[in-house]
Amino acid sequence: MKLLPFLRPLLEAAAAIALMAVGLRIITNFFTRNSRVYRPTFLRQLALLFWPLLCLGVGMPFLVSFFYVSTLSAFELVLLSAIASIVLGFSLPAFLLHSQYYARNLHTTLVFDPKQNVLEVYEGRVRIPFGKKDLTRVERVTCQSNRLFWSRYTYLKLYLQTGEVLTLTSLLTNLEPVTEFLRNTPLEKKQRWFCWA
């Protein structure tokens, strides 16, 4: 049971992070009303990256063994390579999508209130002026599988009459209500295995 001393601290750390995230979510929900302004926040990023981080955290002790590759037998090296490919295969695509979405929507602010018929997009502090009538088409891209770590990474592209394309990613918020709000516009729904925006 050599694995138990490594696994226990990782599980304790994951449980502590999960408790802190849930506690912060409860506290912030208690003191604030439902927001209609969406930006890439720490809690939203943690919610999207929770499983990839947990997978990487559990697999990290095994990946450290690559530093001792000269002392490993052929069987141990094959087993270690298989574990590394599984860990990186599950977590690396999510990290790639997250970094791409973060770079794309770092300075984007979405103001969305369907009850007041408000949908506004700001790049930095500058509002991009458009209304529903200015949209030539809307493209909603989701992941084909719901079971992958990166399946929650989706995006929405708004094509304006001016030729400008606004990309809203799931790093801002859940995009299903926004898609429902735009249902009367020319809406194209697409599914991909990897939603690179």
UniProtKB/TrEMBL annotation:
Pfam families: PH_40 (PF26566). This is PH domain-containing protein. The keyword Transmembrane helix applies. The chain crosses the membrane at residues 6-27, 48-68, 74-97. The keyword Transmembrane applies. It comes from the Bacteria. Residues 37-180 form the PH domain. Keywords: Membrane, Transmembrane, Transmembrane helix.
